[in-house]
Amino acid sequence: MRLAEKTILGILWLCALAPFLSAQPSSAPPLSQVRIAFLTDGSWDRAETIGGEFRSAISRLLEGKYEVRYVADLKADFTPQGVGRQLEVLLADPQVDLIVAAGPLSSLLAARHGNLGKPVVATFAINTELLGIPSEVIELQEGAAARREVVSGVENLTYIDFPDTLRDDLEVFQELVPFEKITFVVNQVIFRALPLLHQNLSQAAAEKGLQYDVLEVSDSLVEAIRTAPPIEAAYVAPLLQLDLQKLRQGIEEFNARKIPTFSLWGRSEVELGMLASLSLDADVPKLSRRLALTVLRILQGEAPSRLPVTFRRRQRLSINMSTARAIGVSPSFQMLTEAELLQDVRQSAARRLDLPTAVREGIARNLDLASQDRSLSAGLQDVALARSLRLPSLEVSSLSTFIDDDRADASFGASGQANIQNSLSLSQVLYSDSVLARQEIAESLQRSREEEREQLRLDVAADTARAYLNILISKTVEGIRRSNLELTRSNLELSRTRQRLGFSGVSDVTRWESEIANDRRDMIEASARRNQAEIALNRLLNRPLEEPFLTAEADLDDAAFLTSDERFLAYIEDPESFKVLRRFLAREGLQHAPELRRLEAAIEAQERSLLAAKRAFWSPDVVLQASLSDTRVSRDAVTIFDLPQNGNVDWTIAVNASLPLFQGGARKAERQQAFEDLRRLEIDRQATAERIEQRVRSAAHEAGFTFASISLAGQAFEAASRNFQLVQDAYSQGVVDITDLLDAQQAVVNADLARANAVYQFLLDWVEAQRAVGSFDFLASPAERNVWFERVDAFYREQGVPLRRR
Questions:
Q1: What are phi and psi of 350, to 5 degrees?
Q2: What is the pLDDT of residue 638?
C-alpha cells in the first residue's frame, strides 16, 4: 500500500475512533458566577455579625446553584452624602452584579434612587410610607386563586419592609413604667438626614398623650446623657455608630441615674443592661433567610420590582430584672408573665433539681415519712413491752410502821413501837400462751407497720415525681402561651399592614388587640399554675414553699428512664409483646407490693390471735413466784435508826398454774371474733391483690396509649404549623379573612399543647404504672436496670414470645 493511501486510511481510522477516544468522564459545567457587593451605613460593631449572617444564609442557599463572590464591602460614614457616593460607586462598578444595602440609611437612599442599573436589595426599609419609599399592590393569579402582594414597582429594586413598631413599643413601655415624658435617643447623623423621622416621633408621642424630647447622639452616649435635660424615660433607637463598649457605658449611665430604658433594636441590648425591649434583634436569622431567598429569586430571573417586600417581625417582650431591681422598677404580674426575664432570681437560683434528685430528696425530707418513722420507733417499743412479759420480774420493797406503846405492849412482843419489813419478790412466767401470743402478734404488727412505711415511701416518691412533671408541664404550657402571644402580636402587626394597604379595615386590628388581651390572661393563668406546681413540690420536699429552684427537662431520651433504652421499645412494639409486658408487670406488682405484705403481716398476727383464743380453753398460765422478807422490830420508836433489837427472815417459793373454767362465754366470743377478723383480712388481701393487678394493667394500658400518641401528636403539630403558615401568608395577601387565621392559630396552639402533653402524660402514666408495681426506674442504677431487662427477657422466653429487637 502506498504511503498516501496509508495516511488517508489512518486518518479515517482516527476519525472513526475519535468518539470513543474522547468518551472520557467529563467534569460538570462550571457554575454561573454572581458577584455581590454589600453597602453599609458606616463602621459599627454589629455590622460584622449581621453581615456574616447575611453572607452565610446566601451562600448556603446558593450552594450548588451559583458560584458566589463577595466583591466589595463598602462602609460609608453615616451621612447621606457618604452613603450616596458609595452607592454610586457600586452602581457604576461592572464587577458588581447585585447590591445589598445593609443599613437603614443605605436602604432608604437605594429605595429612593429611582434609576438603578442593576438589582438592589434594601434590607432595612423602615417606615416606608412616611419616608416615601415606593410601593405598589399587585394581584397575582395562581391557578384559580388570586392573591395580592406589595411590591416596589421600581425596576431593579426590591426591599424588606420593616414594620414601624414605635407605637407598640411605647404602649408596652408605658405599661411597664408609667411616665409622662419620653426622650427619644437617636443617631444624630441619621436623624438630621431624615427630617420626616421627627414627624413620626412627634405623632407617636401625641397619640400616647406624651410630652417628648429628642437626644441626639454622635460618638458618646455618656456625654449626651450628662449634658441633656432631666430624662424621665428613654426610648433608644439603634445607635449603630457606637461600639459595644461605648454603648454599654451609656447604658450604665442610664441605670446609675435610675432612668428606665427601652431598646428599639432588641434583646441583645437588654442583655447589655437596658430595661426592656419588644424586639428580637431585628429578627436577624429570619431576615437573613428572607434576603437569601430574594437574591435567589432575582438570579433565577424574577424581576426585583415584582418581589414581595412585606416582612413580619416577631415580637417578644424581654426584661432585664437585674436592671429593674437596680433602678427601682417592679413590673406588674401581667408583664412578668408575658416577658422573657433576664437575670431573674428564679432563673439564677442555686438550687437545681432533676427528677431523680427531687424524688430522693422527697424520700429523705418528707414530713409524712418522718412521722411514719416515729411511728415505727414507737412500734418497736410495743414489741419490747410484749417481750418483757416473758422475762423475770424482780421487786424490792420496804415498809416502816410506827405504833404507840400500848398497842406494842398488847401484842405480847409480836410488834414493837417501830417495825421495818424489807422484802424481795421474784416472778417468772414459765408458760403462758397468751404472753407468747402477745409478743408474736407485736412482732407481726411491727412488720405490718414497716410495710406501711414502705407503702408511704412509694407514695411520696410517686407524688414527688408527679409534682415535678406537673412543673415541667406547666412550664411548657407557659412557653406555648408565650409563643402564642408572640404570634398574636405578629398578626396584629400584619393586620395593621393590611389596613394600610386596604386589604382590611380597622375591625381586624381591634380584634387582634382583643386577642392579645385574651392571650395575656392565658399567660397569667399558666404562670399561676406553674407557681402552684412549684409550691406543691416544695411542700413534698419540706422546703420553704416559695423557695426558687431550677428544673431539668425530662423526656423519653432521659437516661433516668427505661424508655431511653432501645431494648424497652421491643416490649411495646406490637400487641402480643405488650400483653406479655403487662403480665410481667402485674406479677412484679403482686410479688413486691407493700400493701400485700402489710396485709400478710396483719394476717399472720390475726392467725396467732386466733390460735391463742383457741388455746385459752385448755392452756394454763404457769408462773414461778418467790419472795424473801426480813422483819425488824424495835420496842422503842426512838431507836428506829439504831440496830433493831430482834428480827425475822422469811422466804417463799411457789409455782402457780391457773386456768379459767368459765368466764361467761367471753373466751368463745373472743375466738369467734378472731376468726371473723382473720377472714376479713384474707378477703382484704384478695381484694387488694385484684386492685393492684388492675392498677398495674390499667396504668400500663394508659402508658402504652400515650406512648403511641406521642408521634401522632407530633405529626398533628407539624401539619397544624404548616397550615398556619399557609393561612397566615394568605391572610397577608388579602386572600382569607381574620376568622380563618384565628382558627388556624388556635389549631396550632392546641396541637402544640397536645404534643407537649403527650410526652409528659406518658411519663406520668409510666410513673403510675411503676408505683403500682412498687419500684421506680429513675431511682435504679444502670446495673439494676440491666438486671430488670434480663428478668423481663427471661419472662418473655418463658411465655414463648419472641422479641423484635432492632
A1: -75, -25
A2: 54
